[in-house]
Amino acid sequence: MRIARLNPTRPFAALSTEARRNSGVLRLRRCLFFSPAFTLVELLVVISIIGVLVALLLPAVQAAREASRRSQCMNNLKQIGLAFQNHHGAHQTFPSGGWNWYFPPTYVNGRPLTGSEQRAGWGFQILPNIEAQAIWNAGPEQAIGTPVSVFFCPSRRSPQTVDHADNYRPPLTNGLITHALCDYAASNRESTGVVRRFESASMPNITDGTSHTLLAADKRLNIARLGEWQEDDNEGYTVGWNEDTIRRTNRSPAPDHARDGDGEKLFGSSHSGIINAAFVDGSVRTITFRIDKETFRLLGDIADGKQVDDDSF
């Protein structure tokens, strides 16, 4: 009788197929039930690494978002600047600053007036040039209360309206007036800027050079009260000759703030360190909050006879 000898190098060779299969299942079960898990220390390390990665990536994501919003703000001002130029091409003058802040848009026989006859501000006057002809043609109530996206800086807010009582003229609806707001202001340095009360400036008046004459820019506001009336002039885009739509360059621009009264008449923004500004030549550039006060004053004047160096702002 021959006895089968096992090959020491192949200990399972003599086992039946079923036996080998059962042994494999046993090893698999051992792996499933006895494999080591994360320890508490390892779990905390993983969580810490994830936290560090989030902390590193979050500022970059926020910076990218703000860069996108700032680019959109510049595009808004680009459209406003082109609208001023197109208005000039159609009427041989830039829009006026309007007559007074409480006047609604002026219509005669259902049609809005143009030029110095239009008492509403520049924001209303350029509506046909920013693809808002329907609002231009509508009645005063709709024109005053319809937000226009190009007038809002995305770093600050979405298109918005505010309701409040008006003591200077009859209310339009339910004792309140709904004003569509605006985050930009045209430039007028003590009546020597592009946008003026009662009258309109034209290209021949701008002797300091169109690339060195400020047209419109971000205006400073109380960011704690964006959805309500505030002393820093958070009125509608249709108002004429008021700090709501006109700002002066005799004071340097400044960042948005949370106190009433500090931003009146100032240019400013929610951007970090700068405002975006449109110039008469149609260009849009950034102006730092650190700009020299005299340089900023000169940018707002159309005919002071003094040159401003591009590197100075």
Indicate the topology.
Layout: H1 17-34, H2 40-91, E1 107-108, E2 111-112, H3 122-125, H4 133-137, H5 140-145, E3 161-164, E4 177-180, E5 184-187, E6 214-218, E7 246-247, E8 254-255, E9 268-269, E10 274-279, E11 284-288, H6 293-299
C-alpha end-to-end distance = 108 Å
**Overall mean confidence score, pLDDT:** 81
Strand content: 5-15%
Largest sheet, in brief, is: 5 strands, mixed
Individual helix count: 6
Structural class based on helices, strands and sheet pairing: alpha+beta
Helix content class = 25-40%
Number of domains: 1
How are helices and strands ordered from N to C? HHEEHHHEEEEEEEEEH
Shape: globular
Query: Which blocks of ≥5 consecutive residues have pLDDT under 50?
Result: 167-174
Largest beta sheet: what is the strand line-up?
Answer: 7-5-6-10-11
Rg, please? Answer: 33 Å
Q: Report the count of strand segments.
A: 11
